[in-house]
């Protein structure tokens, strides 16, 4: 049952910035406040977290709800990007708005209990699927607003310049509520032409851009430099994101540093999608298989805004997933060999505070004036959230509880003196 209390006193809580000392927080009318009003004090509920850790809600910057949970409808053989695009194209022939809605809802249900409170979801538009996916996601945006803020990014998965009618659909969606314009240049007959056209449209509609970009392990043919150049030329500083960009993993540090400085100067952000990128790339290598993930730690040092995200769940692009951003952060840390407390804290930031910067969230955080979207963990410190893949215990949206996960109970056998028995053979 949902508790719709308008005022909340949170006591005995630890924050990442509180040096492990318990503090108190106040929430009124959905926002953190320095102190409660007289009416708020009179009606406030109290939440005693008994020393548990409180973090702002987790932020998913790149998720495809419209094509989630379709793996059973596909024939997965090669495990390549091209196969994933083709298998999804075939599966889309049987999509309906209600089908997309139900599959998307099942993922959102998972995301809620994993502590996610904000999602940028990418929606495919083309003459085959038309606006079915967009209309379904708009319904999800409305119906799940109590737990998750959905931002809709529409994009041409199967090309735009080579796919007549796609641009008109993108325009229609932007006029009907989509707020971000996405791109997928590597599937277009003219990658450079698609990039240029999308920047022109972004200026026309005054919207942010989010590209699927440079998704292979060859250092040749990078389109990232064009995106950086267009960001300057079209004055889109801080409003452009690139996802995947696995080509960067094939470059030496010296070249990555130069590109990273260029990205930071242009305000181009990056999202790594570890589960997808590890599954689809490097298959041509039998031995010494490359890891193929964008080098976020190095780009972060250059001042680039970075994030980690899930991308897909249970489809040909990513056959796995439970919508856990913590699991994605742990996977990235493991593969990238990040293990110090400082490194794990950056991984945590890439699914929370830095992801919020990428989405340009104005009221994100735990200080007065921020929206009271938060999640609770039972861990020694914030780095342990990533290291232990810690499950969140409860979450709140605008100060209202959205889920609660009870602690697991262990039923250990004991002898008559109350000591634990060792069970042989188990």
Q: How would you sum up the global shape?
A: globular
Distance between the termini: 39 Å
The SS-based structural class is alpha/beta
Beta-strand fraction estimate: 15-25%
Spans of at least 5 consecutive residues whose pLDDT stays below 50 are: none
Question: What percent of the residues sit in helical stretches (DSSP H or I)?
Answer: 25-40%
Q: Could you state the order of secondary-structure elements as H and E?
A: EEEHEEHHEHEHEHEHEHEHHEHHHEHEE
Q: How many strand segments? A: 15
The largest sheet is: 8 strands, parallel
**Overall mean confidence score, pLDDT:** 95
Number of helices: 14
Estimated radius of gyration: 22 Å
Strand adjacency order, main sheet: 5-6-7-8-9-10-11-12
What does the secondary structure layout of this molecule look like, with pairings?
Blueprint: E1 7-14, E2 23-28, E3 31-33, H1 38-43, E4 45-56, E5 58-63, H2 81-92, H3 97-113, E6 116-124, H4 132-143, E7 149-155, H5 166-175, E8 180-183, H6 191-205, E9 208-213, H7 224-233, E10 240-244, H8 253-266, E11 268-272, H9 274-280, H10 296-301, E12 306-308, H11 325-336, H12 341-349, H13 353-358, E13 374-377, H14 382-387, E14 394-397, E15 400-404
Parallel strand pairs: 1-4, 5-6, 6-7, 7-8, 8-9, 9-10, 10-11, 11-12
Antiparallel strand pairs: 1-2, 2-3, 4-13, 13-14, 14-15
């Amino acid at each position: 049952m949902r508790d719709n209390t308008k005022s909340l006193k949170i006591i005995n809580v630890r924050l990442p910035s509180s040096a492990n000392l318990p503090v108190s927080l106040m929430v009124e009318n959905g926002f953190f406040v320095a102190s409660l009003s007289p009416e708020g004090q009179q009606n406030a509920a109290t939440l005693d977290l008994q020393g548990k850790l409180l973090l702002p809600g987790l932020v998913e910057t790149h998720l495809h709800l419209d094509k989630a949970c379709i793996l059973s409808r596909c024939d997965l053989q090669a495990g390549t990007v091209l196969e994933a695009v083709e298998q999804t194209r075939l599966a889309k022939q049987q999509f309906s708005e209600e089908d997309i809605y139900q599959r998307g809802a099942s993922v959102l249900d998972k995301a809620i209990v994993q502590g996610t409170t904000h999602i940028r979801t990418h929606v495919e538009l083309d003459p085959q699927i038309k606006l079915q996916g967009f209309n379904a996601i708009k319904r999800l945006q409305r119906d799940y607003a109590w737990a998750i803020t959905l931002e809709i990014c529409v994009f041409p998965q199967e090309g735009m310049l080579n796919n007549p009618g796609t641009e008109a659909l993108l325009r229609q969606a932007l006029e009907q509520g989509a707020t971000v314009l996405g791109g997928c240049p590597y599937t277009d007959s003219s990658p450079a032409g698609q990039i240029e056209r999308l920047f022109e449209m972004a200026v026309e509609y005054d919207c942010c851009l989010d590209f699927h970009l440079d998704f292979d392990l060859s250092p040749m043919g990078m389109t990232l430099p064009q995106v950086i150049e267009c960001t300057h030329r079209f004055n889109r500083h801080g409003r452009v994101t690139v996802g995947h960009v696995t080509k960067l993993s094939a470059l030496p540090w010296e070249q990555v540093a130069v590109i990273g400085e260029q990205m930071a100067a242009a305000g181009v952000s990056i999202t790594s999608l570890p589960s997808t990128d590890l599954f689809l790339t490097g298959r041509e290598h039998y031995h010494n298989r490359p890891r193929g993930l964008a080098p976020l730690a190095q780009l972060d040092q250059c001042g680039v805004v970075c994030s980690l995200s899930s991308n897909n769940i249970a489809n040909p692009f990513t056959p796995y997933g439970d919508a856990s951003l913590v699991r994605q952060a742990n996977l990235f840390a493991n593969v990238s060999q990040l293990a110090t407390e400082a490194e794990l804290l950056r991984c945590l930031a890439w699914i929370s505070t830095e992801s919020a910067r990428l989405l340009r969230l104005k009221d994100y955080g735990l200080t007065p004036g921020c929206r009271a979207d938060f999640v609770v963990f039972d861990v020694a410190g914030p780095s342990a959230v990533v290291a232990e893949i810690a499950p969140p215990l409860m979450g709140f949206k605008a100060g209202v509880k959205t889920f609660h996960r009870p602690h697991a109970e262990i039923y250990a056998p004991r002898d008559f003196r109350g000591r634990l028995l060792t069970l042989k053979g188990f």
